[in-house]
Write a structure and sequence with these properties.
CATH class of the largest domain: Alpha Beta
CATH superfamily of the largest domain: Alpha-D-Glucose-1,6-Bisphosphate, subunit A, domain 3
Number of domains: 3
Shape: globular
CATH topology of the largest domain: Alpha-D-Glucose-1,6-Bisphosphate, Chain A, domain 3
Bound molecules: alpha-D-glucose-1-phosphate-6-vanadate, cobalt (II) ion
Strand order of the largest sheet: 19-20-21-22-23-18-24
Low-confidence stretches: none
Radius of gyration: 23 Å
């Protein structure tokens, strides 16, 4: 095989964010953009003395996945890879399935071609998640070194062979994208019990949003569990996700929301994102917020065969509401709070400190892999429904009755002017807001949060700003790290409500005054007079 060394010039903006490197597809199509990033990643593996011989390559099926596959293979091979395992011939698999395969086959790491919930297609986004031997995203120590490397790269190694020859290299093997993953799910949940629940008429409506989970969902829900044949919708994989923005929340998936809230509905409604790590859950006429979903999972974990012996601890991201804290406290479980990004859970999972965790952005997962997992979360719910015989609404009512309800809302200003965002952040950071009015209440504290990982000692600065008020509202605010245009600001607001007569109120309605007060406090209409507010929940 002929290894060649190609001269290259650095590309700007190859800094990985919350979940890998993301850019416009057209940016990724620039000469050597992909090659520079891949070579830099491999250089970091080597500089950190990590083994770099066996890699898994996966993708969520979006535009460029198939085209980039042979180019990635050539670079890995030219850099000494001895084994390359590809998840599915069509490069369409959920990220959690890739995480499982890295772990199961003990690979040295992996590359997942996905920009997750960002739209796909030539005018959409592309991305690469760099995965570690634990099956989780690279920590900041790795991505910082990777970014530094991309700024000085001068050459990369590749094979001088055709794309077809690359795919046919003897070190390349293709494995079934669904089987290992479905087997794993079957080993964790009570499939016979869920099967009976479907036999007795239980129904699910699962929306794959034309992305990566359709095949796994059909295999698991319909084939193995016997759900009705029409349970999976938008289940074919399309390179541009049919033009959808595959982000399961109330803003970007009004279809499933409408089907579940206004009928005809199903016993369980769910949707997932582009790469199958996020999920949105509904019962008949009821939306379950992700923080509440994590609280329910924690509360009922003993019903899941895999968790029957108990949890070592739980964790949530800092922007997630405190609903799970209340449950964990009563159950005597440790509850950790980590910065945004699944890698912060991964180190606690590696250390055995937690076995279940979740973030507000529609993701939960456990210690069996190192990524969040949509189908896992949906099976968790199915298992609870089947084991208790209760409805989603009954389970939610019980949660609120026993612990109180933590009302929660999340909204963003997406792709706004980065310079204005910098000004706003500076204003919030420097303004003396403590004591300022907040509706009928006052601001009690304003804190810039930093974090030290209790397992590894790794630190994170700029986690976000937390504002507490005298009426018990918590506002959290941070910059997104997954956008590809301008800057995206995220706001999170929660308030604990013990009064049962108020539990039935819609959370966006309940939080309306607090959001209006926060907008005034942060002078949002001055900074972003025209920006649309994206309300996720
Ligand atoms: C968002 C979410 C975060 C999630 C990340 C990756 O990040 O807020 O919770 O971990 O996306 O999700 P940000 O920085 O834009 O807020 V995904 O589904 O890659 O894998
Ligand atoms: Co995702």
């Amino acid at each position: 095989m002929r290894t060649i060394t190609v001269q290259t010039l650095p590309h700007a903006n190859q800094k990985p964010g919350t979940g890998g490197l993301r850019s416009r597809s057209r940016t990724f199509m620039q000469e050597n953009f992909l090659e520079n990033f891949m070579q830099s990643a491999l250089d970091v593996f080597k500089s950190k003395n990590m083994r770099a011989e066996f890699f898994v390559i996966a993708g969520d099926g979006r535009f460029l996945c198939r085209e980039f596959l042979p180019r990635i293979i050539k670079i890995l091979a030219a850099n000494g890879a001895k084994r390359i395992m590809i998840v599915g011939r069509d490069i369409t698999a959920p990220t959690p399935a890739a995480s499982h395969i890295i772990r199961k086959y003990r690979a040295d790491g992996g590359f997942v071609m996905s920009a997750s919930h960002n739209p796909g297609g030539i005018d959409g986004d592309f991305g690469i998640k760099v995965e570690m031997p634990n099956g989780g995203g690279a920590p900041e120590s790795f991505t910082d070194a990777l970014y530094a490397r991309t700024k000085e790269i001068k050459e990369y190694k590749t094979f001088d062979i055709s794309d077809d020859e690359a795919l046919a290299l003897p070190i390349v093997e293709f494995i079934d994208a669904t089987r290992d993953y479905a087997d794993l799910m079957e080993s964790m949940f009570d499939f016979p019990l869920i099967k009976k629940w479907f036999e007795k008429g239980g129904t699910i409506r699962f929306d794959a949003m034309w992305a990566s989970t359709g095949a796994a969902a059909r295999e698991i829900f319909i084939k193995r569990l016997g759900a009705p044949g029409n349970s999976v919708i938008r289940g074919e994989s399309k390179p541009d996700f049919g033009g959808l923005h595959p982000e399961p929340n109330l803003r970007y998936n009004p279809e499933i929301a409408n089907f579940m809230m206004n009928g005809p509905g199903a016993d369980l409604g769910a949707a997932c994102d582009g790469d199958g790590d996020r999920n949105m859950i509904f019962g008949r006429g009821i939306f379950v917020s992700p923080p509440d979903s994590l609280a329910i999972m924690t509360r009922h974990h003993k019903l899941i065969p895999y968790f029957a012996k108990g949890l070592s601890g739980v964790a949530r991201s800092i922007p997630t509401s405190s609903a799970v804290d209340l449950v964990a406290k009563k159950m005597g479980l440790d509850c950790y709070k980590v910065p945004t990004g699944w890698k912060w859970f991964a180190s606690l999972l590696d250390a055995g400190m937690i076995s279940l965790c979740g973030e507000e952005s529609f993701g939960q997962g456990g210690n069996y892999i190192r990524e969040k997992d949509a189908i896992f979360a949906i099976l968790f719910w199915l298992n609870i429904l089947a084991a208790t015989g209760k409805t989603v609404r009954e389970l939610m009512n019980e949660l609120w009755r026993d612990f109180g309800r933590v009302f929660y809302t999340q909204y963003s200003f997406e792709g706004v002017d980065a310079a204005r965002v910098a000004e706003l952040c500076e204003y919030i950071r420097t303004a003396d807001l403590v004591g300022a009015g907040f509706g009928k209440a006052k601001i009690k504290s304003k804190t810039e949060l930093a974090y030290t990982d209790p397992a590894t000692g790794a630190t994170a600065a700029n986690v976000g700003t937390e504002i507490l008020t005298t009426d018990g509202t918590r506002i959290f605010f941070r910059l997104s790290g997954t956008g590809t245009v301008g800057a995206t600001l995220r706001f999170y607001a929660e308030k604990f409500e013990p009064d049962a007569t108020k539990f039935g109120v819609d959370s966006r309605e309940y939080m309306r005054d607090a959001v209006a007060a926060a907008d005034r406090l942060f002078r949002i209409s001055e900074f972003f007079p025209d920006a649309e507010k994206t309300v996720a929940m």
